[in-house]
Amino acid sequence: MPTIHQKNFETFIDSVAIAQKVNELGTVIAKDYKGKDLLCIAILNGSYMFAADLSRAINLPLELTFIKYNSYRSMESSGVVEKFIGLTSEAKGRHVLLIEDIIDTGLTMTEILNDIQQLQPASVEVVTLLLKPSALQEDLDIKYIGFEIENRFVVGYGLDFDGYGRNLKDICVLQQ
Ligand code: IMP
After folding, report:
1. Is residue 113 lining ligand 1, measured as CB closer than 6 Å?
2. Among 123, 163, 44, residue whose Cα is nearest residue 52
3. Does the first or last residue of the chain, that is N or C, have fewer Cβ atoms within 10 Å of its Cβ?
4. 164 and 3 in contact (C-beta within 8 Å)?
5. Which of 155, 148, 159, 153 has the alpha carbon at shortest distance from 176?
6. Cβ(106) to ligand 1 under 6 A?
7. Which pLDDT score, from 0 to 100, does residue 85 have?
8. In ligand 1, which atom is closest to the CA atom of 132?
9. Tens of pLDDT, residues 101-130
10. What was the pLDDT predicted at 111?
11. Model's pTM, two decimal places?
12. How close is the Cα of 165 to the center of ligand 1, in Å?
């Protein structure tokens, strides 16, 4: 059982269940985007591991790039979303798929969607590995969802607690 910053975490979704879900998502996405010019934009830092696995599960030619936003401080959302940096690919007229690790309040994703829409893509959809429906404050249309989870703090598989825990293979939850 991992301990991070003196807090105990326990396994919540193990690596086998994650891999299975990622493959399922990849299969559906590949079917939906067949024949389309797919630009995957993964949101750093948390989604790096999910993006690496999901992109390999999408059996199509695609471009994968990364952007960075920051809204989360320690264990709760700061409610302040900074602007993204790092989009070097042309999004205009292309089918954009945003890859996110977790959607909590939805503030970050709302902001990102607003910014991406301004770039005039042909379409924009969102894939998130995790969604906390009871924490959601925004009216978001999320096409691909891995797991809906309760409103508890999780780490692992890219998700961090103050920088630590990203390298855990399982998604772990703070013990109650
Ligand atoms: P939102 O803007 O509240 O939806 O927060 C989205 C961002 O907060 C995600 O991209 C994560 O980086 C971070 N986040 C939300 N919930 C958790 C969690 O339980 N563990 C770790 N990071 C989280």
Report:
1. no
2. 44
3. C
4. no
5. 153
6. yes
7. 74
8. 16
9. 999 999 889 989 998 999 999 999 999 999
10. 87
11. 0.94
12. 14
Instruction: Measure the CA–CA gap between 154 and 121, rounded to whole angstroms.
Output: 32
Ligand 1 atom with the smallest distance to the CA of 45 is: 12
CA–centroid distance, 160 to ligand 1, in Å, is 9
| Cα-to-centroid distance, 102 and ligand 1 (Å) | 6
What the chain holds in terms of domains, given with CATH numbers, is 15-152 (3.40.50.2020)
Mean pLDDT of all residues in the chain? 92
The Cα–Cα gap between 40 and 87 comes to 11
The per-residue DSSP string of 99-133 comes to EEEEESSSHHHHHHHHHHHTT--SEEEEEEEEE-G
Task: Name the residues annotated as catalytic.
Answer: 104
The answer to whether the peptide bond before residue 59 is cis (omega within 30 degrees of 0) is no
> How far does the centroid of ligand 1 lie from the alpha carbon of residue 35, in Å?
33
Q: Which residue has the CA at smallest separation from atom 9 of ligand 1?
A: 102
72 lines ligand 1 (CB under 6 A): yes
Q: Which two three-digit tokens encode residue 12?
A: 């919540």
Cβ of 165 less than 6 Å from ligand 1: no
Residue 77 reports pLDDT greater than 80: no
